[in-house]
Amino acid sequence: MPDPKHIRLAVDIGGTFVDAMELNTRTHEVRFRKASTTPARPWEGVLDAVTALGTDLSEVELFIHGTTLGLNAVLERRGEPTGIITNDGFRDIFLIGRGNVPADHMYDFQYERPESLVRRRHTAGVRGRLDHRGRVVEELDAEGVREAARVLVEEEGVVSIAVCFLHSFLDPSHERQAARIIREAYPEVTVSLSTDIVREYREYERTSTTVLDAYIRPIFERYVDRLEHGLAERGFGGQFLIMRSGGGSMTSSVAKTSPTHTVLSGPAGGIVGAAHLAAALGRRDLLTFDIGGTSLDACVIEHGSPVAAYEAQLEHFPLLIPTYDIRTIGAGGGSIAWLERGLLKVGPHSAGADPGPVCYGRGGTRPTVTDAAVVLGYVDPGRFLAGTMDLHADAARAALDEQVARPLGLSTEAAAAGVFDVLLAKTVGAVRQITVERGHDPRGFSLLAFGGAGPLLAPLLAAEMGIGEVIVPFAPSGFSAWGMLSADIVDDFSRTVMATLDDADLDELETIFKGIEAEAVDSLEAQRVPAERMVLERQFELRYLGQEHSLIVTAGRDLDRDAIRRAFEETHVARYGHAMDNRLQILNLRVRGIGRTDRPELVVRPPGDGDAGRALFARRDAYDFGTRATASFAVYDRALLEPGDAFDGPALIDEGTSTTVVPSGQRVEVDEHGYLLVRLVEVAS
Fold this sequence. Notes:
This protein is of the alpha+beta class. It is built from 17 helices and 35 strands. A hairpin with a 4-residue loop joins β13 and β14 (296-302). The N and C termini lie far apart (56 Å). The mean pLDDT is 90. This is Hydantoinase/oxoprolinase family protein. Pfam families: Hydant_A_C, Hydant_A_N, Hydantoinase_A.
C-alpha cells in the first residue's frame, strides 16, 4: 500500500506578491516562497509561486487558497454585466440604497457615491408578492419572469442575474421558481438567488449581497477553473479548498457558487493563524497587525477568539456575510507618498505589483513606503527577497528627494522618516478604532506582526501605543498562508426570527435550529467531512428591543432564556461597558457547521548557548526612531538565531522576505519556537 500523501500547500494572493507555504505533515518542516502577482492573469502568479517551491504536486493532499479576486473585481469594476429581477415596483432598491454618507465625506456637499454596479435599465420588476410573514399575497407571474429575462439577456446583454424578492427569506419558493424559468430559457446565464446566499431580513442589504455575488461569480468561476486545470496538469489530485472571509474554508466547488464569501479571504488566513497562535503561545489577547503591499489589516483576538461580524462593507455596498471585524486602511509597502497643499500623505493609492515601487526598477516613478525603507537603511538592496530581486536604491532616493524632500525643504532621510511618521499615525488611528473605541486597553495585548512590512513598523507602533510585546513569527510575509493551513472547513446558515426572548416559543426555536443544522450537515457531507469531525455551533443574534445594532452569543444545546440573557449581558458589558434591564429581541438564529482539520504543530526547538553573536553578520547605518537620528544597527540573520538568544536595539533581523526593525529602547528575545519577542526595555527588564 503506497504511503499516504503528506504535503499541504497554502497560497495567498496579495496586491504585490503571491505567498506559497508548504507543510510536510510528517516532519513538520515548513518551506516558503514568493512570486510576483500577475493582475491580468492571476492564476499564473499562483502557479509561479507553486513552481518556485518545487513541490511535487502528486504528493499534495491539500491545497488551500486565499484570494482577493472578487474584492478587486468590485473595486476595479471588472465584474460581468449584471441584471436584477425583483418585485414589481421595487426595481430601484439596489440603486437607492441607504442615504448615509461615509464619515470621511460628512461635510463634503459635493460628495457623490461611486457608480453603481448595475445600470437601471438592467433592473426589472415582476408581479408576485409575499407578505411580511412569508404568506403568498400574489402568485409569481411566470411569464413576466420569462419576459424580464429575455429583455435583460437578449436586449441588454447581461450575463449574470441576481434574483431577490421581498420577504423571500421566509419562503424561497418564488425565487426558486424564477431561477428555474431563467435557467431553462438561458442555461448559459449565471443566476444568483438571495435565499441561497443569506436568508435574513433587510431587503437592501440582502439585494446588495446577491448583486455582488452575481457580479463576481462568472470571473471567479473562470479563475478557479483555470487554476484547477493548471494544478491538475502539474499532477495535483488532492483536495482544493478556498478560504472564507469569516474564517474556515470551503471546497473550490462550493466557492464557485458562493464567491462573496471569499472577498476578504486573504486577510482571514492571518486571523485564523493568529487564533491558533494565541492558544499555542498562551496569549489570549492579541492584536493582529498585517501589512502587505497595498493595505494594512488589524483585528482583535479577544479571549482567544477573533471578533466576528455578520456584515461587511465593500466600498458603499453592504455584504451580509460572516467575516472577521478587520480594520483595513490603504497603507502598505507599495503605498505612494505624495503631497497635497504642502502636506505629506501616504496612500491609499498603491503602486501595486505593476509597476511597483520605484526601487523595483519596473517603471514605477512615484515614491512608496518601500522606497522610504530603502532610503532609511532598513532594506538591503542586495538581499531583498533572499537575493532573488535587486533593488535600485539610487532611483528610490532620487524619486523621494524630487517629489517629497525638496518641495518640503527637507533632507531625503528626513522625508523618508516623515513617510513612516505619517504611516504610523494612520496605523495608530486604525488600531484605536478596534481597541480604545471599543473599551479595550491596547497595552494589555500582544501585537502579532506579519505581512511583508508588518515587522518593519510593529515595534514603532508598540512604542507609540505602549504595547508591551511584539511577536514576529517565522516567515511573517507568508503568515497568512501559514494560517490557512490551520483553517477548518466552515459553513454558516441563518434564519430571521424577529421575536422577543421572553415571548419566543422555545420549542419552535428548537425546530428552526434543527432545520438549520440539517442544512449545515448536508453542506459538510458534500465537502467530504467525516461525521466524527463535524461540530455544530448554535448562535443567537440579539439586541435590546428598540436598538439598531446587535450582538452574537453562542447557545448551548438546551435552550434556556436566563442563560441566553446572561450570555448577552456579559458580551454587552465586555463590548460597551454596561448592561440594561430592557427586553431582548431575537433577530436571527445562526448555525456554524465546522469540519475540524489537523492543525500544524508549533515545533519546540532546542535552546542555544545564548550567544546571538553567531547570527550577527553585518552592521549598517540606518535611521533610529528611538533617537530620531542615524545610528549603527547590528544586522542579524534570523535563520541563525536560537531559542534563548537576546539582544538590544538598534538592530535589524533579516530573514530574506522581511526585516524586523528594532529601534533603541527595545529588546529582542527568541522564544522556544524561534519566534521573536520584541519588548520595550522597561517591560523586558
